[in-house]
Amino acid sequence: MTRLLGLLAVAVPLVSAFSNTAPLLVWSSESSDAIDALPSTALQASTVLDSLLSSEQVCDYDAVVLVQQRGLHASDLRNLSPESSDLPQLLAHSPSSRTFQYLVNDDASALLSNRAQDLAKECESKLLRYSPGDSGVVLDHGRKTVVSLGLPDLKESGAARRVAMRNQERALAEELDALASVFPNHLVIYSGVPLSALSARASPHVFINDDLPEGGILKRYQILTPGLISIFLVIFFILIPVLMVGIKALAGIQNPIKMDMPKNFNAQEKKNQ
After folding, report:
1. Residue 24 and residue 43: Cα distance in Å, rounded?
2. In sequence order, what DSSP letters do the residues of 62-88 get, joined into one string?
3. Measured in Å, how far apart are the chain's first and last C-alpha atoms?
4. How confident is the model at residue 259 (pLDDT cuts 50, 70, 90)?
5. Can you state the angle between helices 158-182 and 86-93, rounded to 10 degrees?
């Protein structure tokens, strides 16, 4: 039993690492008890965000920057060079920072874009939504601000993906540097979101599979599902044998033995005697 539990303990992180997971980075310009108290064993992005954004300290920042990127993987961050990339250096030099490589982030409540408006209302802050490099964005130095930054989706693969990640990381670092100059006391949350999770939830259309194989119903659909097979096994190997034993037992029940009367027995004569 102990060995089985050990295998399960190893299997759970492995499954989490590949099924609807994305990284989440948190850092601040000043030491933060809220960041340091984040649960290190969290599996859900919503757990981390609930713990962080519900703290009283979150409204003390001049700016809370929420960065969300669809398709971001933990491997994209690991491929960034610590020497030439700005993001690893920001994390290394921040007074408080936490990195979660594999968090399940397919719940609508975990999306930073959904939480930005609630946070701005709670902290009575100005809400800004834009992408790095957008023109016409006005940063108000004297007012608390919640900034929701949207980065382009990461859909590339191989070398093209690494190039796209470097370019986007550079643009994000420049934008964060501009924000830090206006809001010295700030908190940054950078979260990835699986492409599959958002696409499935955002699409209002019904999916129709046009690639069904040709042929009859047995070729188009799986009739014998595992559940149905289990039912058949229970019926044939448990219920039917029990039923046969019961029928055989009932058939073996015999009537009471009858007493045969003598051949010349006369009931009237017996009474008269």
Report:
1. 11
2. SEEEEEEEET--HHHHHTS-TTT-HHH
3. 85
4. low
5. 50
Q: What is the pLDDT of residues 205-236, one digit of tens each?
A: 333 344 444 555 554 455 667 677 888 888 88
Average pLDDT, the chain: 79
Who contacts 270 (Cβ-Cβ below 8 Å, separation ≥6)? Answer: none
Q: Are 172 and 149 in contact (CB under 8 A)?
A: yes
Q: Measured between alpha carbons, how far is 199 from 85 in angstroms, rounded to an integer?
A: 30
Euclidean distance between CA atoms 178 and 66, whole angstroms: 15
Burial state string for 174-207 with b = 16 or more CB within 10 A and e = fewer than 16: ebbeebbeebeebbbbbbbbbbebbeeeeeeeee
| Type of residue at 253 | I
Specify the pairing of strand 96-104 against strand 21-28.
antiparallel
Structure tokens at 97: 């920072």
- Going from the C-alpha of 232 to that of each of 63, 65, 245, 270, the distances in angstroms are 63, 58, 19, 65
Per-residue pLDDT at 88 exceeds 80: yes
